[in-house]
Please model this.
Amino acid sequence: MSFLRFENVSKVFPGVRALSGVSFEVRAGEVHGLMGENGAGKSTLLKILGGEYQPDAGRMLIDGREVRFPNAAASIAGGVAVIHQELQYVPDLSVAENLLLGRLPLTGGWFSKSRAVSVARERLAAMGVDLDPAINLRKLSIAQRQMIEICKALMRNAQVIALDEPTSSLSHTETEVLFRLVRQLRQEQRALIYISHRMNEIYELCDACTVFRDGKMIASHAGLKDLPRPTLVREMVGRDIADIYRYKKRPVGEVRLSASALMGKPLAAPATFEVRKGEIVGFFGLVGAGRSELMHLVYGARKKEMGEITLDGRAIRVDGPRSAIRHGMVLCPEDRKEDGIVAMASVSDNINISCRRHSSRVGVFLNRKREAQIADGFIRQLQIKTPSRRQKIRFLSGGNQQKAILARWLAEPDVRVVILDEPTRGIDIGAKHEIYNVIYELAERGCAIVVVSSELPEVLGIADRVVVMREGRIAGELDRERATEQSVLSLALPDIPH
Amino acid sequence: MQTDDQLAVARASGAREMSTDAFPFRWRESFAEYSLVLIFIAMFAAMSFSVDHFFSLDNMLGLALSISQIGMVACTMMFCLAARDFDLSVGSTVAFSGVLCAMVLNATGSAVIAVTAAVAAGCTIGFINGAVIAYLRINPLITTLATMEIVRGLAFIVSHGQAVGVSSEGFIAFGSLTLFGVSLPIWVTLVCFVVFGVMLNNTVYGRNTLAIGGNPEASRLAGIDVDLVRVTIFLVQGAVTALAGVILASRITSGQPNAGEGFELNVISACVLGGVSLLGGRASISGVVVGVLIMGTVENVMNLLNIDAFYQYLVRGAILLAAVLLDQLKNRGERN
Model:
């Protein structure tokens, strides 16, 4: 019997149809997986469920009755709890205060912390959660904070609980704890929605699943038992997975970049690796394995404590991004918004930010004509979708912003090493293709390329060689032939269960 | 159900058309961009008609002279704010450099040495500000609040709390020197507007400043020497502020240790009025010029109308609030 039902739900944003005519149902006592690429509409749906957005058309039914949630409070009152990726909590308040926020127990009109703590302790015990309600949330791990969030939902006795990528920053053991809790909720006949990008989790945890693509519901499967993975993937991306990466074997030259015994702050052991001319090396690891940090050490964005970097057989000194760039070593950072683009500046400024030191007159005055040529050239070449080079870059989609950052480095006269940190995170499939093509082209030209990625299929799909990191050290290396999902994961996982 | 569907589709395509049509958006943006200039022109015209003696050559020159110090320092403050920094020490620097200049002048009799000493002192203060902020990573507000107190203290200490009179004829003449009937301080201010305007818009340094203010980490990873640019901004600010202090000393024929109190807030107000973002990354020289002019005009008019100085504080504050509110309205929706 369906408990939560979406009927023809649509949502339009200026220029984008985020959801069009989505219908599916979630039964009580079911964990329902939502799958789809970024921008497929999963989060929009959750925001409608949470009362943050209003649907333009269609309706929602809970337990057979139509519901409307004009705001978040209405959604909560309607027995819904949406747990977002970015958790909502006050880090410097205690667990008890966070749990009871908005309904703090008062004694004679005054707030009493000891009373709040005892109330919270009772509730936590009833839910079988072992946490001290008196300590501040800041002192808890991400997983524990997530647990608090779920407890909040349970304290309101929410019947519909939606989790948006809850495991994205959890370790393996923490994930297990979360799964146990989710299964317990299923036992209690609640309706659960579970969003994840990880195929394994969906198969392990979910009873049913619905696939989204480009704002449309592609398929809804009542059971996952007999559903082959490739089918699910095809539904998600709209084509066979083999054909996404279009890998071609390339000749690989001599060693271009080599880092030996590189050591710096968060790493657990000195790291040594090399990349050859025309070679694409994928760096895989779980969140917190130290991949980005290692790349920042190579790029000089972090201070290294020891170690040596050799470029084309010559030892070089890299004491900052500036000198790395001078040596022809560039980096596209992981967090595009925070570390990549200057959001308020134009597309042209974002492309020219580094190479203008060459194009400027006497190194001081801007050469606007040259800058316009460079910007327009790359906008055409990389098919960056923007009304003009003067458009502020923040109005562009993630994929086009990433292309602009790539253009920034393609504009450098002599690029030898390109480090790409999560180059396709949050980017739609079309733009992904185009970015892979740029990567291949750079490799053909003889660049040494490092691709750091958390998407295992991507690493396996485009890399000639895979370096796996685990807990701050390099755990091993695998050639393309030997790199499989199994072999890479067994190197990457800190504690293999069973 | 069918009609619902069609409705949704119709709405969707309608919304799409609206957003691809960039004209209303572009138009609105350019209007927002120049709204301040329009407001100033309207205000200026209204004053010219309604306030006696306002629109006369003498009054205009007086107005220009009265804003010359603020105008000069606003140019460099614009860079400072654009880079997401802040400088409260300029008022104290104006006083200190004036006092120092007067004392060196009295001791050596050479205007060149005196001005050089004052400007060098300004550079030093600016460099210290910049180095502490950029290299030691101390919050700019706190750093310059501290140097504001320290430098003001130094001004009182070296002058023993007394105004330092200037007897050098040449130095006093320097302040009242005129060219085409326009006095030197005004020329210096105009030169500052042009030089810093070109620097902001047409040099790598100016673009780097805006990039740093817009996103410091991205700028660093893109190869900009962020720390160096920030130190340079403060250094130049110190030099220009000291020059403003020297010119003030020359105009009032003495170095006053309590000169320029509240000056830093007037300068920052003028910049903010001119649409410079305190969050960094956004600045325009035309905005700053208009901001300075609005500040000066309002004060000038209130003086002409014999409005009590006490009320002038109220009016200045109200105008600042109104300008920030206008700015907020302009950027509404952009921040999301």
Observations:
- Chain A touches chain B through 43 residues (CB under 8 Å).
- The first strand of chain A starts at residue 2 and ends at 13.
- DSSP finds 19 helices and 22 strands in chain A.
- Chain A has two domains: 2-241, 244-492.
